[in-house]
Amino acid sequence: MQDLLQIWNSYSNYKDKDINKMIFHSNYEQLNDIYFGFCPLYNNKREYIYIFYANVIIDQHDHPILHVTSGACNPSDNSYIPSIQFKNKLNELFNDLLPIIQIDYTELLKNSRFNLSWQYYSQNN
Q: Please, what are the domains in the chain?
């Protein structure tokens, strides 16, 4: 995953702060860190479009919460597949497989790239 982020970083003519944040997280991995790669089928192939970083926290009531805190988009992606599809897929998987785990996107939504996109698609679909 770290190699993929380095490759993405080399694609950019500028340093993408989201990719750099993900690289930073990957340098200090903890046991409760989880990385999700989103690679939907597009033009009969699958390529990583987004990578998301999350960690699992146990709340004061001993309930596990998956905090999705940051994400990065492949700078060479031209599929225009919205990142909200990742959110919908992750929610679907966890609801089916691990319904006891809540998913929290609060920190990720502080990033205007995801917040604005998700608001737009929520209102128009």
A: 2-124 (3.40.630)
Name every residue whose Cβ is closer than 8 Å to that of residue 11 and which is 6 or more positions away in sequence.
Answer: 74, 75, 76
**Tell me: the pLDDT tens digits for 77-96?**
888 899 999 999 999 998 88
CA distance 18 to 83: 14
Tokens of 39: 């690679």
Separation between Cα atoms, residue 53 and residue 47, nearest integer Å: 18
pTM: 0.85
Which residues, other chains included, contact 12 with Cβ-Cβ below 8 Å and sequence gap of 6+? Answer: 19, 75
